[in-house]
Amino acid sequence: MELKEASLRERKIYYHEEWKEKDVPEFIVERIGEREFAFDHDGNGYNDRYKGFEKIGLFSDFLVKNFPYAVCTSVSYYSKPKNREDWRGAELVFDIDAKDLAVKTCDCKESKVCEKCLFEAKEIVLNIKDTLVQDLGIKRLFAVYSGRGYHLRAVDDEVLPLERRSEILEYVTGSKRPKDLFLSQGYSAVYRKMFILTFNKIREKNLPFSKNITDTLLSEKNSIISKLMSCHADFLDIKGIGSKTKNDFMGHIQKINGSLVDGKVTVDVKRILRLPSTLHSKVSMKCVEIKNLEIFDPLKDAIPKFVNEREE
Ligand SMILES: [Zn+2]
Q1: What is the sign of the dihedral through the CA atoms of 271, 276, 277 and 280?
Q2: How far is the CA of 231 from the centre of ligand 1 (A)?
């Protein structure tokens, strides 16, 4: 499916006829006066920044009047959002973009996405979400379809003041080797889960080894995965695979896992993120808060009405 850019007229139709104030997530509305807003009015970037809205109604008026190309809000709260003064904490955010995935089983060209890689991005999101909820005890976690990928946004009181966000990133993506690979729970289990998730999708072109080694690793894939799942320490004891290759192979998967999430977004609390309910005009998709991630289908649930009314 080729999604083309929304025209000015289509943006106007979207904000006048389809957009509803109630589609702005509650986790945004509840502290709306403390968020910075940023607008891209013409597709040339977020030139209209440092805006604040005391109430959701004022924001609605602004949208209907301006039907912007793109809308973002800060992940941080400020007592004076227009000046970004007096920081009051930031959401803990994970940005998983389908177009940037280092390993995908489709043949999308660079910066393109398709049904398949959007689904693979969602699988990654589901796994990270489980880790955040089950291992790290996150309670107020919201999933958002961003237009070409997904955001996970946590607003628990405990996470807002966090400083060392990169450690959480390593934990949920499984991008650092655990001391003991085979503990039944905790980080070891997360590492194995994420290792398997990525290795399952690995193809010849994704491995930086000689043809012999690559062929061996791929032909033993099922056995490696099932041994790892059942915690067999010999999961990589394969003829032709030496200890250096083992190490390099694991390091390679870890590196890929480290790139599943755009780390800059997690670490940088000055970031702005696309606001759910608004239009991603470049691809004519809606950014939406997802109520049920398992059944969410972006190609059904994030397509604005005007796309279906387009004449070919
Ligand atoms: Zn694709």
Answers
A1: positive
A2: 32
